[in-house]
Design a protein that fits this description.
Elements: E1 7-13, E2 18-21, E3 27-37, E4 50-59, H1 60-69, E5 75-89, E6 92-106, H2 124-135, H3 141-154
Parallel strand pairs: 4-6
Antiparallel strand pairs: 1-3, 1-5, 2-3, 3-4, 5-6
Protein name: Single-stranded DNA-binding protein
Keywords: DNA-binding
GO molecular function: single-stranded DNA binding
Length: 159
């Protein structure tokens, strides 16, 4: 059984993103993305990082989320696929490509952020661990741990 994989890119949003509508009325997110990548040389070594710029698009729910969560200057990891398309510029037909983003997140190595967790994502065990000392009458976790250590000592649990 093989591991399912997707194409991914890591890059910095290089232009102010903008929203538009598709021909059928759906949401479309567009931005330019700057990617720094080392290219392999014929001798097997890698050259210095080179910057390239590409079109980044998202549709539907991914576009709606990107609209509120991704700004110019953000570094993101995006999963999706490359789509080739043909368009006309000054009467000349051009073949181009864009990266269609299906999933994304900020690059944790280069982004400082805070995570706001809501109660419904916590497991019951995690909720018990964080509330247990107060429920048994201890004001702080340290007091609860000290009491547990003392109980273990008197019960012959010390080693």
């Amino acid at each position: 059984m093989s591991i399912p994989t997707r194409q991914c890119i890591v890059g910095e949003i290089a232009s102010a993103p903008h929203m538009s509508k598709t021909t059928d009325g759906g949401e479309r997110y567009f931005a330019r993305i700057k990617i720094k990548a080392r290219r392999p040389r014929p001798d097997g070594t890698y050259g210095p990082p080179a910057e390239t710029f590409h079109n980044l698009v998202a549709f539907g729910r991914a576009a709606q989320r990107a609209r509120t969560r991704v700004r110019e200057g953000d570094v993101i990891v995006a999963a999706g696929y490359v789509r080739e398309y043909v368009h006309t510029v000054a009467g000349v037909e051009r073949r181009d490509e864009e990266f269609v983003m299906r999933w994304f997140g900020h690059d944790a190595w280069r982004t400082t952020y805070r995570i706001a967790r809501t109660g419904h994502h916590r497991s019951e065990a995690a909720a018990r661990r964080t509330t247990a000392p107060a429920e048994v009458g201890y004001a702080t976790l340290a007091e609860g741990l000290a009491a547990a250590a003392e109980d273990a000592l008197h019960a012959g649990g010390a080693r």
